[in-house]
Design a protein that fits this description.
Protein name: Dipeptidase
Organism: Virgibacillus xinjiangensis
Pfam families: Peptidase_M19
Distance between the termini: 24 Å
Helix content: 25-40%
Radius of gyration: 18 Å
CATH topology: TIM Barrel
Shape: globular
InterPro entries: Metal_Hydrolase (IPR032466), Pept_M19 (IPR008257)
CATH superfamily: Metal-dependent hydrolases
Structural class: alpha/beta
Largest sheet: 7 strands, parallel
Number of domains: 1
CATH architecture: Alpha-Beta Barrel
C-alpha cells in the first residue's frame, strides 16, 4: 500500500555530511546510505509514494548564516535526490501528486521554522518559487514570526507571522502547526486556509508539549486539516521504555474517536529522531505499520491513513 509521509529530516543529514567532507567524512549516498532512514532503497521497500523533505536549520547556526544553510539544503535536494535518481519526482504543485506514475516517488519541499527568512518576505517568496509547499513558522524556539512549543512565554503569532500565513494562503501553501505553542496554534487555525500538523500525536494519549489537545484536534478536523501521527517514541508513550506499533495505533484510535478517521496521515520524523518504534526503525519498515493497521481497521480506512486522506484534503 503506497504511503505519503509528510515529514523527514534527510536534507539536514545530507548537509551535515557534505560539510563534514572538510573533516574527512564522505558525502552520503542517497540511494544506499545506512545513516539515512529515508534512503531510496528504504523508500522503495516501504512503498513510499511521496516523501516530504523539511528544510530545517539548527538553532545554534548564527542568524546571518541561516539563509545560506537553507539554500544549501535546497541545492542538495536537487543534486543528491532529484538529479541522480530520475524515479524521484519533484512535486512543485499539489496537482502533481495526482499524476505520479507507479514507478515514481514524489518529493515535496517544506520549511520547518521560518528562521532562515528573518523578516524578509522576499526570501519566503523565493522559497515558494523553489517549490516549498508547506511552512511551519517555528521549530521549538522563538523567531520573528512566533514562539515555538518550548519557548517559556508561550506567545502566539507576531504581525510578521500573520503576514506569512496570509502569503501561504495566497500561494496555496499549507501552514504547519506541529511545533506551535497553544496560542500560536489557535492563531494559525483562525488565519490559515490550509492548516495541518505534519508530525504530531494526541496529548490525551501521551502528555508531551509537541502533541495536540483534543480541542486542537477537533479544530483541525473542523477546518478540513490533517493530523499526521509521528513515530518518535517520546511523543507516543510517556510510560514505556520500548514503544511498539500498537502504542502508535492508540493515537490513531483516539483521533478517530474524535471524528478524525478521514483526517489522519503519517509524518514519521525519520532522520530527525534517534529513538525508534520497535519494527518501525526506518522507511523500509513502513508496511509493518500498514499491516498492523489492517488488523484494526477496514482496508479503505487504512488506505486513507496511508495517503488518500491527504489527497482529499490538500489544497486544490
Amino acid at each position: 500500500m503506497k504511503v505519503i509521509d509528510t515529514h523527514c529530516d534527510a536534507l539536514l543529514k545530507l548537509q551535515m555530511e557534505k560539510r563534514g567532507v572538510y573533516y574527512g567524512r564522505k558525502p552520503l549516498d542517497f540511494q544506499h546510505a545506512d545513516m539515512l532512514d529515508t534512503n531510496l532503497d528504504r523508500l522503495r521497500q516501504g512503498k513510499i509514494g511521496t516523501q516530504f523533505y523539511a528544510i530545517f536549520i539548527e538553532p545554534d547556526i548564527p542568524m546571518e548564516e541561516k539563509w545560506q544553510h537553507a539554500l544549501e539544503q535546497i541545492d542538495l535536494f536537487h543534486t543528491e535526490i532529484l538529479d541522480k535518481h530520475p524515479e524521484m519526482r519533484h512535486i512543485r504543485s499539489w496537482s502533481d501528486l495526482k499524476t505520479l506514475h507507479a514507478d515514481e516517488i514524489g518529493a515535496v519541499l517544506t520549511l520547518e521554522g521560518a528562521d532562515p527568512i528573518g523578516n524578509d518576505l522576499g526570501k519566503l517568496r523565493h522559497l515558494y518559487r523553489a517549490g516549498v509547499l508547506a511552512v511551519g513558522l517555528t521549530w521549538n524556539h522563538a523567531n520573528l514570526c512566533a514562539d515555538g512549543v518550548h519557548e517559556p512565554r508561550g506567545g502566539g503569532l507576531t504581525l510578521l507571522g500573520r503576514e506569512v500565513i496570509r502569503l501561504n494562503n495566497a500561494h496555496q501553501v499549507m501552514s504547519d502547526v506541529a511545533h506551535s505553542t497553544v496560542r500560536g496554534f489557535w492563531d494559525i487555525v483562525e488565519l490559515a486556509d490550509y492548516p495541518f500538523a505534519s508530525h504530531s500525536n494526541a496529548r490525551a494519549v501521551c502528555d508531551h508539549p509537541r502533541n495536540l489537545y483534543d480541542g486542537q484536534i477537533k479544530a483541525l478536523i473542523e477546518k478540513g486539516g490533517m493530523i499526521h501521527v509521528v513515530f518518535h517514541p517520546e511523543f507516543i508513550s510517556d510510560t514505556k521504555e520500548q514503544v511498539e506499533i500498537d502504542d502508535l495505533i492508540r493515537h490513531i484510535d483516539h483521533i478517530c474517536s474524535l471524528g478524525g478517521v478521514e483526517h489522519i496521515g503519517f509524518g514519521s520524523d525519520f532522520d530527525g529522531i534517534d529513538k525508534y518504534v520497535d519494527n518501525l526503525e526506518n522507511a523500509a519498515k513502513y508496511q509493518n505499520l500498514i499491516n498492523a493497521l489492517l488488523n484494526h481497521y477496514p482496508e479503505e480506512q487504512v488506505r486513507g491513513f496511508a495517503g488518500q486522506n491527504f489527497l482529499k484534503h490538500m489544497p486544490n
